[in-house]
Design goal:
With about 180 residues, this protein is mainly alpha-helical. Helices cover about 55% and strands about 5% of the residues. A three-stranded antiparallel sheet has the order 1-3-2. Helix 1 (about 30-55) crosses helix 5, helix 2 crosses helix 5 and helix 3 (about 75-85) crosses helix 4.
């Protein structure tokens, strides 16, 4: 019995060569460790710039940024802790130096003395605006247009969000507004 014509290669067509196989899946541990090293490099860059110009760390800036995005520039300390992924005592330790230099104040709730708020002071608002300008410039330096296209940044942002990275005014699991 003869083989059907469709099973024989057409001599007029070039040989397509080997069928490409799917690339091997990258090692998840290696990927995670690369992300950790990249995060450390980004933190070092922001810390150096923010501390050199404004005397604050990236952690301080992030805390101030959350307060700046909150209604009235203030948040309950417990909510600030949740937004930052810290414990209540971690927030207290983070706020103490910012209170000493006059960027943040402690406010008691009018109805419940057990509730404490952290609030940006007028000086804190002014300094945060200056820090935000510096942080944007630092981010622009990190993600230069000649090396990072809009598609690259969009994809990276999407992937980081998938890992739980959110904007300062968002909580994990909450859709952007």
């Amino acid at each position: 019995m003869m083989t059907p014509q469709a099973d024989r290669p057409d001599p007029a067509q070039p040989d397509p060569g080997p069928v490409p196989s799917e690339p091997a899946r990258p090692d998840p541990l290696d990927t995670a460790l690369r992300l950790v090293r990249a995060q450390a490099a980004v933190i070092r860059r922001f810390d150096a710039t923010l501390s050199g110009l404004h005397g604050v760390s990236l952690s301080d800036f992030t805390l101030l940024l959350h307060l700046g995005a909150a209604p009235g520039g203030r948040m309950r300390r417990v909510d600030l802790a949740e937004a930052l992924g810290l414990t209540a005592s971690g927030v207290t330790r983070g706020l103490a130096p910012l209170e000493r230099i006059g960027l943040v104040s402690r406010e008691a709730a009018a109805r419940d003395a057990r509730v404490a708020y952290a609030a940006l002071t007028p000086t804190g608002r002014e300094r945060l605006a200056e820090m935000l300008h510096t942080a944007r410039r630092t981010a622009d330096d990190l993600f230069t247009a000649d090396q990072w296209g809009a598609d690259d940044l969009g994809r990276l942002s999407t992937l980081l969000t998938r890992l739980g990275g959110t904007a300062p005014d968002q909580r994990p699991g909450r859709p952007p507004t």
